[in-house]
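Dear colleague,

Thank you for sharing your sequence with our group. We've completed the structure prediction you requested, and as agreed, I am returning the results in plain text so they can be pasted directly into your records. Please verify that the sequence below matches your submission; if there's any discrepancy, let me know and we will rerun it promptly.
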Amino acid sequence: MYAVQMTVEGDLPQETVDAIAGELRDRLSALENTPLELTAL
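Please find the predicted C-alpha cells below.
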C-alpha cells in the first residue's frame, strides 16, 4: 500500500483545498489506472 500526503501551507478557503486535493486524486488515479480515495488528516 502506498500513500501520498499533500500539505497546504497558509490560509486557503476549504473549497480551494478540496478542489486541489480532488484534482490531485483524479490525476494520480488516471496515472496509476486505479481508483484512489482521499482521507483528511
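Summary note from our side: The longest helix spans residues 14-32.

Kind regards,
the structure core
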